[in-house]
Amino acid sequence: MTKRDFVKERCDRAIAMFKDHALVDNREDRWRIMKREKDGHLTNIHAAEIVSLWGGRLYVGGDIDDCVFAYYSDHLDHLSKLRWMGRCNDVGYYVRQKASVGLTDGGKLVDEFDERVAQEDLDFQMRGMLEDLQATAGDAEDGGEGEARRIKDLFDEAKGRMSDPYMMRQRLYEDLDDPDAWEWLGSVGNIVSYRVVYAWAAVRRLCELLDEVDHAKS
Questions:
Q1: CA 63 and chain centroid, separation
Q2: Largest Cα–Cα distance in the chain?
Q3: What is the pLDDT of residue 152?
Q4: How many Cα atoms sit within 13 Å of 143 on the Cβ side?
């Protein structure tokens, strides 16, 4: 699986979680959605409140972790701001980026470390390094086999250190002897957090519900 696949897996799970939510509060700049059980009863589990804030910001909270998306400036109306997030499908990059701006967290809340993602990231980087080595090691006495073994052993060791992502990255940085390694090491294993994905899925569901209201009026 690629990182894109892992993000899609999270999005599909979040979309499924909100698929039975109903619109229970519909104001000009504030909405609330709640899950409707099969018997018609509304439950607070994963209930969400979405508020269009001043200054192009969109707040999502409730029985999910709080999130703020910023900044939207294309149109002044609140519904356009909702659709800016709810209709966006680039969750791994664009939605994550707007949540990072809104939360001003430097990535602490919008990213999570996932070992499966880290495995894929490390395999990708190792393959690239081995390909570069193969292209430049023709003059080496052993054809670069010794360095290739060292690289493979180093990445295998890193995969065994995933319980401490910081130490894993630090060890790779020290042993790779590459001053540019931090350009990719800092993102190894990072994937957009469920906080952001759930907030996006809540706005997405709200857009669907508001479309149903508009359709019923027409």
A1: 19
A2: 78
A3: 92
A4: 1
- Enter the tokens of residue 46: 């994963």
Report the amino acid identity of residue 44. Answer: N
Contact present, 35 and 47 (Cβ < 8 Å)? yes
| Alpha carbon distances (Å) from 82 to 31, 55, 70, 140 | 10, 14, 11, 59
Collapsing DSSP to helix, strand or coil, 68 comes out as: strand
pLDDT in tens, 139-182: 666 667 888 899 999 999 998 888 899 989 988 888 887 777 88
Instruction: Enter the tokens of residue 118.
Output: 């880290």
Please report, as a single letter, which amino acid is at residue 17. Answer: M
Give the domain ranges of the chain: 3-112+193-213, 115-188
Q: For the chain, which ranges sit under pLDDT 50?
A: none
The contacts of residue 165 (CB under 8 Å, 6+ apart) are: 113, 118, 188, 189
Residue type, 155: F
